[in-house]
Every structure is written in structure tokens, then in C-alpha cells.
Amino acid sequence: KFVPARMLVNGRSIFYDTSITSYDYYHIETADHSVIMADGMLTESYLDTGNRRAFRQNNAVVSIPLSRDLSWDDAAAPLTVSREAVEPIYRQIEGRAKEQNCPVQTAPQPLTYDSDLHLVTDTGAVLHQIREHNGRVMFMIPAGVKSVRIVSNASRPCDVVGPFVDDRRTLGVLVGDVKLYEGNATTTLTAYLHQADLSGWNNVEDSTMRWTDGSAHLDLGRRPLGSIALMALQIHAGGPYLLADTAFEKSALHA
To answer: What's the pTM value of the predicted model, to 2 decimals?
Structure first.
């Protein structure tokens, strides 16, 4: 089976060498996709999945000129990215690196579980929560506000859980139902659960909840003039987050 090298980075025996600022990248293509040996490491020949034009050829070499638009179904071995399959391999390599006292090349980054959840109105005002109860976070919504952004810290699971998790989405908080209490009426907002290309939301996976990317647009619909509303956000999950991705850390870097 093939496992992407990025999913095995442990900061000791496998790490990103940022001291190398430029390099030449060579691909070897075989008539059939193959497992080959390069510098003592088993790897793969080039599999033309449609990116042939990304490579530049300056010298005369024997080549297969036409794009073949292959897929991993044509590969010499299956591609494996599931955590169940990759994490044991990762742990084995990591354990061997520790036993051999390989020095830490990249230290683990500090994490936080604080989501710093708040709202930003369409006029730029920041709204902080007034209370939290039973998984629901409450906000007072001023009169005249037509939309808000659900703002929070956000990080990628592959960065905070481990590279063996093949999830490179930037995740903020997992929002369930959203209710707006205004006057004697209660409105349940649902548009964000169905609009695929809505700003600041990750892909639709479930009809009852959806991940933000850290700054998600939420339309409040038609509201009575001059009224103040109470919004209840149901939050199913959030964090951990890289401390470097937090709003506090970013503001400190810009100070």
C-alpha cells in the first residue's frame, strides 16, 4: 500500500527541512505505474493523474508525451489514507525514532481548547456571549442587524490531532441548531445547513450540523424593526487549536 509521506511526519526521523529553499524535482514514468527504489527508499513512479503540464522538461529525455489521465485505480498498489491504517505505521516509525534517540527537529506546537467564540455583525461590531448553558451559547443581537459572522479560533485536524489524520480542512466550531428569540416569536435558522457555497462554512456533511472555518456568515432573515433578539447557538464540538492560529496570537504578532 502507498501512504503519503506527509502523514508520517513525526518531527524526528521524518520532518520538513525548511533550510532547503530550492530544489529540483525529478519524476520517473514507467509504462505501468510501478514501485521503485530511490536512495534506498521504496517509492512510486509517476502516476499521470492529469498534472503533467505542471512539470518542465528542458533536456532531451525519453518520455511518454501524451497525458493519460490515470487514477489511483491504475496504481501499482492502493493508496491508503485512513487513520486506522496509517496511525499504527506512524506510531511504529515514531517509536523507532525515539528508541534510536533521533533528535527533535520540529517541536510540537502548543495547543488550546479555547474557541474564543464570538459574533461580528454586518456593521463590524463584536458581540460576546452573555452565557452558556447545556451546549448552547447565547448572544444578544442588537436591532437592525441583518447578518453576523460566527468567529472563532480554527485549525486543521492534521495539525492538531496528528498528520495521520487525513483532514486538511480548517475547522472552527461545529454548529448545530441556531434559534433566534425575538418578541414572542422563535425562529430556527436553517439556510446554513443547506447552502453548499456559503461563505465561511465547510462542506455540508450532515443535515443537522456543520463546521465553520473560523469566520462563517449567518443571515438572520427578516426581523421586526427596532427589536433586540436573543440568539442561541448549539455548539457540538470545537478544538483543539494551534496556539499560533488563535486570534490573540495573531494580534500579538501584528502588534
So the answer is: 0.85
